[in-house]
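Long-time lurker, first post.

We've been arguing in lab meeting about whether nicotinamide-adenine-dinucleotide would sit comfortably in this protein at all. Half the group thinks yes, half thinks no, and nobody has a model to point at. So I'm putting the question to the forum: if I give you the sequence and the SMILES, can you give me back a predicted structure of the complex? Inputs are below. Any interpretation is welcome too.
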Amino acid sequence: MTTAPAAAATAPAGTAPGEGDLRVAVLGVGMMGADHVRRLATRVVGARPVVVADAYAATAHRVAAAHDGVRVAQDPLAAIADPEVDAVVVATPGSTHEELVLACLERGLPVLCEKPLTTEPDSSLRLVHAERATGRRLVQVGFMRRFDEEYAALRALVAGGELGAPLMLHCAHRNAAVPAHFDSEMVVLDSLVHEVDATRFLLGEEVTAITVLHPTSRRDAPAGLSDPTFALLETAGGRLVDVELSVSTGVGYEVRTELVAEGGTAMIGLDRGPLVATSTGRRGRAIPPTFVERFAQAYDTEVQVWADAARAGTTDGPTTWDGYAAAAVCAAGVASLRGGGVRVEVELDEEAR
Ligand SMILES: NC(=O)c1ccc[n+]([C@@H]2O[C@H](COP(=O)([O-])OP(=O)(O)OC[C@H]3O[C@@H](n4cnc5c(N)ncnc54)[C@H](O)[C@@H]3O)[C@@H](O)[C@H]2O)c1
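Top reply:
Settle the argument with this. Predicted structure of the protein with nicotinamide-adenine-dinucleotide, as tokens:
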């Protein structure tokens, strides 16, 4: 299982394009893709965006116009085939990832594929095999929490053995609001997937079974959504991980993980920044509104680590296997939900590891 790469240096805002820069195509320039274009243009050292593509040409043109030297390709496959592209960021919806990552593998291009690697385990497994057939490591999956300084520190604490053997994790993942199309299965596929990867990263072992339950829903939950969701993950080493997922709190973005180990506990995700006292008679820290603010450093480090490896023709960080394992756990989670909260075991094709 991949461990945390060392944090890479990040350039100051306004990094000038250099001769040997990695020339990057960004596919899908909605929220995440546009953010990655900005990051590549202004903060990542040794890489720059040169081509963007999006199903909506107007979106692609708007994003390209905001940065010097960025062209619009007719479609994502044309961007991948462009001879002036050295590496690719895939930030289209998950259902399109298999085709686009395969096209990158065929051209031998390093790719940063946003999570999920694909939306179900079979297609993720096909990518594990396709990458292996190239004889190179070419795919990094966008599980950015591995690059967050707090997650990396917690991982180091576990690996260093300072707190003794880990026993449990308590996780909370709360969003103020989600788009109207978000349903209860998307909570598992889009939100829980991060906790699944964090569990595998922090504990260094696979998730072997999952149970997903719905307690009484908040009365003002959006239509089609039972909120909150509770998940129980069991790991190969017999450890338990409980996860509360709330996606319509109206409060802010809160992600918290508490490790319970034989020799103590450790918690990450408490609010950071200045402790402010106001005329309301309360003292507190600001809650980040979304994951963009909460994980800003993690996204920057993730893309820098990817660019550094891609310049050497390879990739670092979360692998296709990590993407496949997470997809398998989430598929089992959806099966648990559909079965009314039954316990579902996770089956991984160990021969592909
Ligand atoms: N790592 C994270 O924290 C994180 C956070 C949010 C989203 N994501 C992931 O990033 C990806 C994009 O999510 P988003 O929130 O930016 O979505 P979005 O809807 O804002 O953007 C997706 C963009 O892709 C375009 N698109 C759709 N199909 C396309 C196709 N076939 N070819 C080219 N362009 C196409 C859309 O027009 C849109 O502009 C998803 O995989 C999502 O799960 C990751």
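For your lab meeting: Residues 22-145+298-318 form a domain with the Rossmann fold fold (CATH 3.40.50.720). Residues 1-14 have pLDDT under 50 and may be disordered. Whichever side wins, do check it experimentally.
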